Amino acid sequence: GGIVEAGRLMRGRAGLAGHFGQICSGGMRLEDRVSGRWLLRAAAEAGHEADAEAIFAAAARGEGWAVVLRETCLASVATLSTDIQLMIDPAVIVIGGGIGLSPGFVQDLDRHLLTREPVMRPRVVAARLGAEAGVIGAAALAMAF
Prior knowledge:
A two-stranded antiparallel sheet has the order 1-2. A two-stranded parallel sheet has the order 3-4. By secondary structure, it is mainly α. It is globular. It contains 7 helices and 4 strands. Helix 3 crosses helix 4 (about 65-90) and helix 4 packs across helix 6. The model has no long low-confidence stretch (mean pLDDT about 85).
């Protein structure tokens, strides 16, 4: 994750939004708890060989093991989003990536956030550039040098 302030990407450790909450979560980065690799490992531990897409499809069918994994992702991203909201009060939090852009994820994240007090509830939106947002952002950053 990254933080953009006044149209500029913050650099260094201050701009790594995925690292919020590390101390309270045993030193694990968000990427270590909400990623395709984590889902693959968690599914295997539950006895299922499936990638993120298959896991979320199974969750949509109501398969309990997959629903639990998807809800774990949603709860983690909701907590991170709340932490960011309370810390820096952004106008919007943009959600991207394969998990964040999976069908219904941002809408379900919004439902999770609606249970929070208004002061703790960020505005979240899906990345307009879709799954290519990270690559486009990295290319733009490289061109700035």
